[in-house]
Amino acid sequence: MMAAAAALLLAACGPSDVVGKEKLGPVNEGMKLADLPPVLGTGPLAPNQPADSLRLFNGYRTQVFLVQGKQYRVVWYRDKPGSIEEEISRERETPVLLENDVVIGKGWAFFDQTAEEVGIPNPYRTRERLDSIAQAQTR
Prior knowledge:
By secondary structure, this protein is an alpha+beta fold.
């Protein structure tokens, strides 16, 4: 039990939970999606083509998933410019997770656990899995 608590604490202190710490500090459970733009400001991403605008929320990458009648939205906070085509990175982005457009949590430690519980994709876990498959295939 102590080992699990220590692992959770270390995960919570990881570099991705620090990205945007000042901006994300006021983001609290129960906030509505419409309350985020005044707190976060405009994100650094712009659409590369018109269809990309559906993948952005106020300049931040967003993903929407429907699971068992609930809508989960991830707003990927980042503070550095880049491209929507870049893969999601713990070093550049911090997730804010909403259920039916209400914030239920933020940060990678929260997202890792909750994504698995509710059954939404976790881009970091997917990348870890693909990396391990690639390593196994090159042996």
